[in-house]
TrEMBL record:
PROSITE patterns: ABC_TM1. It is found in: Cell membrane; Membrane. Gene3D superfamilies: MetI-like (1.10.3720.10). It comes from Thermobaculum terrenum (strain ATCC BAA-798 / CCMEE 7001 / YNP1). It holds the Pfam family BPD_transp_1. Keywords: Membrane, Transmembrane, Transmembrane helix, Transport. SUPFAM superfamilies: MetI-like. This is Binding-protein-dependent transport systems inner membrane component. It is a multi-pass membrane protein.
Amino acid sequence: MQAKVQTQTKPILRGAVRASLKALTTELRKNYMLYIMVLPGILYFLIFRYGPMYGAIIAFKDYHIQEGILGSPWANPWYKHFKTIFESTYFFNILTNTILISIYKLVFGLPAAIIMALLLNEARITWFKRTIQTVTYLPHFLSWVVVYGIAQAVLSPSGGLVNKALVALGMNPVDFIASPQWFRTVIVASDIWKDIGWGAIIFLAALTGISPHLYEAAAVDGASRLQRIWYVTIPGIMPVVVLVALLNIGNLLNAGFEQIFIFYSPSVYSVGDIIDTWVYRQGIVGFQYSVAAAVGLFKGVVGFILIFGTNWLSKKYTGSGIW
């Protein structure tokens, strides 16, 4: 009986496979130009995102450059390098710094981009709107080296504009960039200044999807401009806000290596040293490649858990998520 069922099932499976292949072939022929356009993006992720995952196995090996990934011996015990990380006297301090800086950027940066998008959307003078939008998103294309130079010109204790104003008011100059009390503020403020315009583009695009009839209906009901923003605009872009917030939460352990590396100094390690800069010093400069790979794997697992967890909570309480 069982053999008879298997005999009957095989032709059905083969038929289903043929139908699927035929449908796939038809789809590729019909929209081949679209798939060719997508191909560079797919290749990018395969080569630069998924390909390097093979090297993650050195987190479980005593890696030596001369012996290569396959030739290096396995670590004994297998969690040896993870133990090194968690037993480090600096790890929980840098983990705290990483999380705090990322949260500050999210808590202050996301609302700033939303407010900028709302202000630009409400502007009625076209040339003014375009000028402000251009001026605000141009810093996104500046390197952090240039941004650091601008920050030095503004915040330098000897000749910075801010400190000149403080001295004129009878106050003592402050070395903002090298001060543990001010370093995180400088990092978050410079990040917002650099990316506020670029982030606003996402929400401006979301605003175009809101039906004008909703605004007309609200105006007929006597809603003021602020009420229309509160009851029509903000709910209309909320799915996009949730999406952006979820993606940022998934990158909670990526506080911005390039920015921190350029801005920080030994005087602010206690508040500015993050996981990526610590890995750079220990893993790259100190040749502890296996430890660096272990930290990267740890970050990936935490990010995976965060993005799945926050997506589940978002779908449960708001009805929208990434998928």
